[in-house]
Design a protein that fits this description.
It contains 25 helices and twelve strands. The chain is of the alpha/beta class. It has a domain at 4-167: Spore Coat Polysaccharide Biosynthesis Protein SpsA, Chain A (Alpha-Beta Complex), CATH 3.90.550.10. The strands form two sheets. Strands 1, 2, 3, 4, 5, 6, 7, 10, 11 and 12 form a ten-stranded mixed β-sheet that branches. Helix 1 (17-24) links the parallel strand 1 and strand 2. The N and C termini lie far apart (88 Å).
Length: 582
């Protein structure tokens, strides 16, 4: 059976390297790592997996470093991965693939590049990362380096495994884009007519949110690339459509989409992105047709660069919106349901579906519908709807959304939200119990303190509220919050109302306004619970805000928003009625 070497280049990849090597160690016979100047723990981590670690001075050229790694490899095949990638492959499957066809000397593998970790959205590309260890196969290009195989008939394609790109922080992503821009600008200056370099440079500018800079580069790349290079021309087209939409040039998107659909009738993403442009122009009937066509296409052939969901949940969601705008509520509801069922992590249709049901059936029946359809079994859906209900002033129904088993996927968030909703339903004891279950390093702790203080005040435990504030004061980062909590606890203990004129400049406005807003969401299961304390608390907070700079304006907008929300709710349910102020 053929031997495989994983050949990598790394630099300061301590955060990602172990996960990458764990994913591939059982599939390869040898691991070769070339380090171009790490200053973190990368080399220490690498040493736990291989002793074949080689230094290589960075010279601004990725191909040189990768080819050096190949030169140290003894396997019959080379697998090339970046440290922020993982191989997703059944045990033994990689070698089984290599034994299938002796004529194949290289394989294109699917690469899933995640664009939204929360919703699971990703782009899929085909990349040549698995090839025979022969002297004629090597990387070329200083950046976005490629292995060129002259005999196309020797290149195979695999769909039964894939490479998964690990999302990086925004800071790290921008650092890498900045590095790439520098290298690409230099390469483009030396080869100004190279469409591949124009494509890569355009993608970097688009990724940095600069569509105006990306547009001419992507236009040139798409115009000069041919179908012989469909693996680059297809994504150039998709990014060009995205770029035009980002710039609001919807007419150009539509014209290009119509032209491209004739050339590539099975390319799902064309129909999806053109459908979005038509929707933006309020051409909802046409948008529905294009989005329906993207659904009919489904997953396109692998040689197209594809946005996962553009032939499924993404198309259904936008199609539902168009149906709703056309007054076709049954069709809209069906589309939103399909979007949620296809991808439970894609929570955006939750709001649209709930508001549609709310308009026709009321909140109680809408919540019962979500429960009956088992949507609450999926934390992203349950959490999204719960927070909507809480914002609408229904903490009791928000609590219902999270009554199932606590999912390990969202364990901390569910505990936090459960605690919060119980508190605003007047069940202070159970709410505080949920808060106590959170780990000491939870990302929700600062928010917990705010709700915990409110629970203590509404239960009449003013002294405990004061003790909480004094504890928070020990943390310099929490002193703005502690200052407000301490002042309010003292006022409540002394049964004093803070008069507007007593306000001192420098007292924290943000925390006071947030507390005042949260008081308005308190709706206890038993009406008498905490109401006396609530009246005292809101009086203190309102007077405090009246004395703060900008407080009067904030309160004015707050009450206007409340009135507008009631009006819109009435209008959506019963139709528009002119409100009279007598």
């Amino acid at each position: 059976m053929s031997t495989i070497t994983l050949a990598m280049i790394v630099r300061n990849e301590a955060h990602y390297l172990a996960a990458c090597l764990d994913s591939v160690k059982d599939h390869v016979d040898e691991i070769v790592i070339v380090d171009t100047g790490s200053t973190d723990h990368t080399l220490h981590i690498a040493a736990g997996y291989t002793d074949k670690i080689y230094p290589f001075p960075w010279q601004g050229n990725f191909s040189e470093a990768r080819n050096y790694a190949i030169g140290q490899s003894t396997g019959e095949w080379i697998l090339s991965l970046d440290a922020d990638e993982r191989l997703v492959c059944p045990t033994g499957h990689l070698k089984e693939i290599l034994s299938r066809d002796p004529r194949i000397e290289a394989y294109m593998l699917p690469l899933d590049y995640q664009i939204n970790e929360q919703t699971g959205e990703y782009n899929r590309f085909l990349v040549l990362r698995l090839f025979k260890n022969k002297k004629e196969y090597f990387f070329t290009g200083p950046i976005h380096e490629q292995v060129v195989i002259q005999k196309k008939e020797t290149v195979g394609q695999v769909d039964s495994l894939h490479i998964q790109h690990t999302p990086v922080s925004a800071q790290e992503r921008n650092r890498k884009r900045g590095r790439n821009l520098t290298s690409l600008k230099k390469a483009c200056a030396a080869n100004p007519e190279d469409p591949f370099l124009q494509y890569y440079l355009g993608v970097e500018w688009l990724g940095l949110g600069k569509p105006r800079r990306a547009l001419p580069l992507l236009q040139k790349a798409y115009r000069h690339l041919t179908d012989e290079h469909i693996l680059v021309r297809a994504p150039a087209l998709r990014y060009l459509l995205l770029c035009l939409n980002a710039m609001g040039r919807f007419d150009q998107t539509i014209c290009l989409g119509q032209e491209a659909a004739l050339a590539y009738p099975d390319y799902t993403d064309i129909y999806y992105l053109t459908g979005l442009a038509l929707s933006e122009k309020q051409e909802y009937k046409l948008a529905v047709k294009w989005l329906e066509q993207s659904v009919q296409c489904g997953v396109p052939p692998a040689y197209y660069s594809h946005m996962q969901g553009s032939g499924g949940f993404l198309a259904y969601y936008h199609k539902g919106y168009c149906h709703e705008k056309l007054g076709q509520e049954a069709e809209a509801k069906a589309c939103y349901e399909k979007a949620l069922r296809e991808n439970h992590r894609f929570f955006y249709p939750v709001g649209s579906l709930f508001l549609l049901l709310l308009r026709n059936q009321g909140a109680r029946r809408a919540v019962d519908y979500f429960k009956g359809e088992k949507f609450f079994n999926h934390p992203p859906i349950a959490l999204t709807l719960a927070e909507m209900l809480f914002a609408l002033g229904s903490p009791g129904m928000a609590r219902e959304c999270l009554e199932g088993e606590v999912s390990t996927d969202s364990y901390e968030e569910i505990l936090f939200q459960r605690g919060k909703y119980h508190i605003y339903c007047g069940d202070f004891r159970r709410g505080l119990i949920y808060f106590d279950l959170l780990p000491e390093n939870s990302i929700f702790l600062e928010k917990v303190y705010l709700h915990k203080a409110l629970a203590l005040w509404l239960s009449g435990a003013y002294q405990e509220g004061r003790e909480l504030a004094l504890t928070l004061w020990k943390n310099p980062g929490l002193r703005p919050l502690a200052k407000v909590l301490l002042e309010i606890s003292s006022r409540l203990q002394q049964d004093l109302t803070l008069e507007p004129k007593e306000h001192r400049e420098g007292l924290e406005f943000t925390e006071a306004s947030l507390l005042f807003d949260l008081c308005g969401r308190y709706l206890p299961d038993l009406p008498a619970v905490g109401c006396h304390h609530l009246k005292k608390l809101t009086g203190i907070l309102q007077n405090r805000l009246l004395g703060a700079t900008g407080g009067v304006s904030w309160l004015d907008e707050y009450y206007k928003d409340k009135i507008q929300g009631i009006q819109e709710c009435f209008h959506s349910r019963f139709g528009w009625v002119k409100w009279r102020h007598e």
